[in-house]
Design goal:
alpha/beta, eight-stranded mixed β-sheet
C-alpha cells in the first residue's frame, strides 16, 4: 500500500491487536478533524473500531477534476478496504459473516451536521442472511438493512426522506403500533422490500446506468459499488448548500475539502445492553465540570442527533442494567481525553452488547459563557496557562454574552417549558419554516423559528431568526448544537407543543392556546421557557468570567480600545465595557430630532442674521451635548469629528416632497402652501449632487461654510472650559474629516485654534485641545507625511477608505453585487466587514509616513473594522495605537487585541 501521493491512512488495530494507525491529531489538514482524532484515540489506547481515512486533498482533486477520481486512488482504496477486511476477519458483502462499515465526512474544521454520513454499508440481499446468522437477531438485521437503504437513498441518491418516513408511518398504522421499535422483523423485512421499490421508482436510470439490471433500476447489491457511490456522495457534500453557507458564516476556506472515514460498524441497536450517545466532558452551555450529554438504549447514532426519540441524560448511563461497566469506562475515557487534549471534548460513542466503542472526539463547541468558564477553570486546574486561556476564547463568541435576557422585573406567564439548549432571550413573530424566517428577516422584522426539530437544510432560517424553538430533540440535537455555535437563543424538546408546519400553527397541549404564524412569542434559552407575547429584554452586565478573561487580555495587549459614541448614554456604556476613550463622536447625529429644523433654517435661508441665530441655537445645543459627553468620559480622550455629511442629508426627501405636492394639487390644496413647497423643492434640487458622498462634505463643508466649524469648536471648547472650572478633567480632541490635501487641514486647523483661544480667553482658563484629521482618502494616506505636519493625530476612517479604494458605494454594492462576488469567490469576504489587505496597506503606509512627518503622532482606526476581530489583529500588526468601535464590540476588540499580541509573542518565540 504505497503510492507517490499518500491518499489513504489506516487507523485502529490489526487482527493480532497491534496498533497500525498511520496518522495523529496533528494531521487535521490531511485527515480532517474526525480522522485525525480517531487516529489519536487509537494511538492512546482507547477502543476505536478499525478503519481508514481518505484525505481531504483527494476530495479536492476529485472535485476540481469534475468529479473524476485521481489516477490510482480507487486502487489504493481497494487495497485499504481489503486490509480492513483482513484486520476484522470479515469481508464486506459476505453471505456468511459480513463486515459492515460506516462512511462519514470529516473536514479540517468542525462542521457539525453539515455534511453526509452513510451507516450499515455492505448489506445486500445475501449479506443480510449472514448478519441474521451471526447475531441470531432477525429484527436487528432487517432494521439495519432498512436503515441502510433509507440513508443511502437520501444521502447518495438525493431522494426525499418523506417517501420512506411515510412508508414507515403506514406500516405502524397498519400494525396499530406507536413506535418504530414496536415493528417486528417481518414488518421490517416488508419495509425493506418496499424501500427497494421506492428506490427503483425514483432513481434515474439515465443518471445511474450501472444500477440497471435486466432493464430495471435496482438498489445496488455490489458492496464495492455501494462504497464508491457513498464516498463520492460524501465528497460531494462538501459543496452542498448548507455546508457552503456554514463555511461562509464561520470564515472557513472553500478549498480545504473533507476527508472520508470508512470505519467498521458497531451497533447500539442490538438490544437493551446496547446504546449510543453524544457527550461532552464538561457542560457546553455554562462550562460546569460535569459529564453532559444524551444517550439512547437500543438505537443508532442518528437517532440521538435527529431528535426523533427523547433521550436520557448521560449521568444516568452507569445506573442502567447491563450498561453499568460501559458507563463507568466512559467516564474514565472522559478524563483521559480531556487531560490529553487539554480542552473540553465532544464525544460520540456506541455500546454494543456491553462493550464501549469510541466513534469520534473533537474539541467541543460551546457557548461564550462556557468558553470563558472552561478557560478560567482549566487555568486554575493547571491544565493550561493564562496565555492559553486568553487564546481559547473566540472574540466573535462574546456577542452571545451581550445578547438580551428577560427583564427580571417583567411580568409574564410561562406557556411551556423545554430544554435550555442555548442561552440568551429572543422575541419575535412565530414562523414555521426556514423560508418564512428568511422572508420575515429580510422584511426587517424579528422572528422565532418554530420547528418539530431542525435539520441542516434549515440553516438559512436559523441564521435569520432571533431564536429557535423545537418540540423534540435533546441538548445535543442539531438545533441545540448549531444554535450554541451561532450564539442564537434556543429552547429544545418542548413536548407540550404540537406543531403543524403546513397550517403554520402550534397547539400547546393542556391549554387552549394556539400559536399562529405572526403571533409574538418570547423564549429564554437560559432557562428553557416559552412565553406568549413579547417580554421586555435587558442586556447583562459585564462581570464575572468575562471580566476575568478581558483583564487577562488587557495584561498582554498593546493596542488601545476606544468606542464610537455620540451621546452620554453610549459613552457611559462604553466606559463600562472597558473603552479607554471615545475614538469617534459623530456630531451630525446630534442634529436630528427637534434640531433638524434649526439646521434646515441655516441651510435654506440666505439672510445672514437668520443664519447667525440658527448657528447660535446650535451652539447652545451642542455645548450641552459636549458637556454630557466629556463628563461621562472624564479623564479619557473624546475625539469629536466636525460635521461631515452633505447638507442635503438634513433636508426633506425630494421624492416624498414631490408626492406631497402632487397630493395637494390633486385634492385642491391651499395654493400658498403648494407654492411654499415648490420653492422648497427648488432649493433642494439646487443642492443636489451627482455623487454626494464625494461632493460637498467633510472639511469642504467647513471651508464653504466657515461659521459651522467655528460654532462646533466653540461648543467643544466651552464645554471643556466649564468642566475644568468644576474640577473635572475633560480631554476633547477635534477631528477634521475627509482631508485630501495639506492646505485644507492648515486652513481649518487655524480656524479651530483661533476659536479655542477665544474661548480660553473668555473663561480665563488654559485649554489644550489636540487637532487631528481623519484619513479616509487614498491621497491622504499616500501623502500622510505632509498632512502629519499639521496633525496631532490620525484616525483612519476605514469605511470611507474602503469605499474610495475599491470605488464602491457601500450603500449600493453590499446589496447589489457583493453577495454575487462572494458567491463567485471574486472577493474572499465582505471588505466592509473585515479589512481588505489593499486597504490595510494604505493604513500601514499612512502610519509609517505619518510618523515621518510627526514622530509623536497618535494613530487609530474609527471605522467599523475596529470591532472586527480579524481586522483588529491586522491593525495590531500595522502598529496602530488604538482601535475604536461600537460600544458592544469593545469587549471583542479588547480580547482580539490581547490575542494579537500573544500570537506575535508566540511567533517570535518559535522564530527563536
Amino acid at each position: 500500500m504505497t503510492e507517490e501521493v499518500k491518499r489513504v491512512y489506516a487507523f485502529g488495530k490489526d487482527a493480532q491487536g497491534n496498533n497500525v494507525t498511520e496518522g495523529n491529531t496533528n494531521m487535521k489538514a490531511i485527515l480532517g478533524g474526525k480522522g485525525a482524532n480517531l487516529a489519536e484515540m487509537a494511538n492512546i489506547g482507547l477502543p476505536v473500531p478499525p478503519g481508514f481515512t481518505i484525505t481531504c486533498q483527494t476530495c479536492m482533486e476529485y472535485a476540481n477534476a469534475g468529479n473524476t477520481w485521481p489516477e490510482g486512488a480507487l486502487d489504493t482504496i481497494r487495497e485499504y478496504r481489503e486490509d480492513l477486511e483482513t484486520r476484522m476477519g470479515k469481508k464486506i458483502g459476505d453471505a456468511e459473516d459480513p463486515l459492515l462499515v460506516s462512511v462519514r465526512s470529516g473536514a479540517p474544521m468542525s462542521m457539525p451536521g453539515m455534511m453526509d454520513t452513510v451507516l450499515n454499508l455492505g448489506l445486500n440481499d445475501q449479506s443480510i442472511n449472514g448478519l441474521i446468522k451471526q447475531t441470531e437477531n432477525p429484527r436487528f438485521a432487517w432494521d439495519s438493512y432498512r436503515r441502510f437503504i433509507q440513508m443511502f437513498s437520501g444521502v447518495v441518491m438525493g431522494l426525499d426522506g418523506d417517501l420512506f418516513e411515510n412508508a414507515i408511518t403506514a406500516m405502524k398504522n397498519l400494525r396499530g403500533v406507536a413506535s418504530d421499535t414496536d415493528l417486528t422483523a417481518e414488518d421490517l423485512q416488508g419495509l425493506v422490500a418496499e424501500f427497494k421499490q421506492i428506490f427503483a421508482e425514483n432513481v434515474s436510470a439515465e443518471a445511474y446506468p450501472s444500477l440497471v439490471v435486466d432493464g430495471a433500476m435496482q438498489f445496488p447489491q455490489d458492496p464495492m459499488a455501494q462504497l464508491q457511490l457513498a464516498i463520492e456522495a460524501v465528497f460531494g457534500s462538501w459543496n452542498n448548500p448548507r455546508a457552503t453557507l456554514y463555511r461562509k458564516q464561520n470564515k472557513i476556506a472553500d478549498d480545504l475539502g473533507t476527508a472520508v472515514n470508512v470505519q467498521s460498524m458497531v451497533f447500539g441497536n442490538k438490544g437493551n445492553t446496547s446504546a449510543t450517545g453524544v457527550a461532552f466532558t464538561r457542560n457546553p452551555a455554562n462550562g460546569d465540570k460535569e459529564f453532559y450529554g444524551d444517550y439512547l438504549v437500543n438505537a443508532q447514532g442518528e437517532d440521538v442527533v435527529a431528535g426523533i426519540r427523547n433521550t436520557s441524560p448521560i449521568a444516568e448511563l452507569k445506573e442502567v442494567a447491563g450498561l453499568e461497566e460501559a458507563g463507568r469506562e466512559l467516564e474514565e475515557v472522559f478524563v483521559t481525553l480531556e487531560n490529553h487534549f487539554r480542552d473540553m471534548c465532544d464525544i460520540e460513542f456506541t455500546i454494543e452488547q456491553g462493550k464501549l466503542w469510541m466513534l469520534q472526539t473533537r474539541v467541543g463547541k460551546r457557548t461564550a459563557a462556557a468558553a470563558l468558564h472552561i478557560a478560567i477553570e482549566m487555568e486554575k486546574e493547571g491544565l493550561i496557562s493564562k496565555e492559553e486561556a486568553v487564546m481559547r476564547v473566540d472574540p466573535d463568541q462574546l456577542d452571545q454574552l451581550l445578547h438580551p435576557q428577560f427583564d427580571k422585573s417583567a411580568d409574564y406567564d410561562v406557556l411551556a417549558r423545554g430544554l435550555n439548549a442555548s442561552p440568551g432571550a429572543a422575541v419575535g413573530e412565530a414562523v414555521f419554516s426556514a423560508v418564512d424566517a428568511v422572508e420575515v428577516s429580510e422584511a426587517g422584522r424579528k422572528c422565532v423559528l418554530v420547528r418539530w426539530e431542525t435539520n441542516p437544510d434549515d440553516l438559512a432560517g436559523m441564521i435569520a431568526a432571533e431564536g429557535i424553538l423545537t418540540s423534540h430533540g435533546g441538548k445535543t440535537s442539531h438545533a441545540a448544537v448549531i444554535a450554541r455555535g451561532m450564539g442564537t437563543p434556543c429552547v429544545c424538546g418542548v413536548e407540550a407543543l404540537r406543531i403543524d408546519a403546513e397550517k403554520k400553527q402550534a397547539i400547546v397541549v393542556g391549554t387552549d392556546v394556539v400559536i399562529n404564524e405572526g403571533d409574538m412569542i418570547s423564549i429564554d434559552g437560559t432557562s428553557g421557557i416559552v412565553v406568549l407575547g413579547a417580554v421586555d429584554l435587558v442586556l447583562p452586565e459585564l462581570t464575572g468570567d468575562l471580566d476575568t478573561i478581558l483583564e487577562w487580555a488587557d495584561e498582554f495587549r498593546t493596542l488601545g480600545v476606544r468606542a464610537n459614541a455620540d451621546n452620554p448614554e453610549d459613552a457611559e456604556l462604553s466606559r463600562g465595557f472597558g473603552a479607554a476613550g471615545i475614538g469617534l463622536c459623530r456630531t451630525e447625529h446630534m442634529f436630528l430630532g427637534d434640531r433638524k429644523q434649526i439646521i434646515q433654517t441655516f441651510i435654506l435661508n440666505e439672510d445672514e442674521a437668520v443664519r447667525e441665530k440658527a448657528v447660535n441655537d446650535l451652539l447652545a445645543a451642542q455645548t450641552g451635548d459636549f458637556l454630557g459627553m466629556f463628563e461621562a468620559m472624564d479623564g479619557l480622550p473624546v475625539i469629536v469629528r466636525l460635521l461631515d455629511p452633505p447638507l442635503h442629508e438634513f433636508l426633506e426627501s425630494p421624492r416624498a416632497l414631490d408626492v406631497e405636492i402632487a397630493k395637494l394639487e390633486a385634492t385642491g390644496g391651499d395654493k400658498a402652501t403648494i407654492a411654499e413647497k415648490r420653492k422648497l423643492m427648488e432649493q433642494i434640487d439646487s443642492m443636489s449632487e451627482a455623487n454626494p458622498m464625494l461632493g460637498l462634505r467633510g472639511c469642504r463643508l467647513g471651508i464653504v461654510y466657515p461659521i459651522l466649524p467655528v460654532m462646533q469648536v466653540r461648543a467643544i471648547a466651552t464645554a471643556c472650559a466649564e468642566l475644568k472650572k468644576r474640577g473635572l478633567d475633560p480631554k476633547p480632541e477635534i477631528m477634521i474629516p475627509l482631508v485630501s490635501v495639506l492646505p485644507e487641514l492648515e486652513k481649518l486647523r487655524r480656524v479651530a485654534e483661533e476659536a479655542i483661544a477665544e474661548v480660553a480667553a473668555e473663561h480665563g482658563i488654559e485649554l489644550d485641545i489636540p487637532v487631528g484629521t481623519m484619513i479616509e482618502l487614498p491621497r491622504a494616506a499616500v501623502t500622510a507625511d505632509e498632512i502629519a505636519t499639521q496633525a496631532d493625530f490620525f484616525s483612519f476612517g476605514t469605511n470611507d477608505l474602503t469605499q474610495t479604494t475599491f470605488g464602491f458605494s457601500r450603500d449600493d454594492v453590499e446589496a447589489e453585487f457583493v453577495p454575487q462576488y462572494l458567491a463567485e469567490r471574486l472577493l474572499p469576504y465582505n471588505p466592509f466587514a473585515t479589512i481588505d489587505p489593499g486597504v490595510a496597506k494604505l493604513v500601514e503606509m499612512g502610519v509609517e509616513l505619518g510618523h515621518k512627518g510627526n514622530p509623536d503622532i497618535v494613530c487609530g482606526v474609527c471605522g467599523e473594522h475596529g470591532g472586527d476581530p480579524d481586522s483588529v489583529k491586522m491593525f495590531h500588526k500595522i502598529g496602530l495605537d488604538y482601535v475604536s468601535c461600537s460600544p458592544y464590540r469593545v469587549p471583542l476588540a479588547r480580547l482580539a487585541a490581547g490575542q494579537a499580541a500573544l500570537a506575535e509573542k508566540m511567533g517570535d518565540a518559535r522564530d527563536k
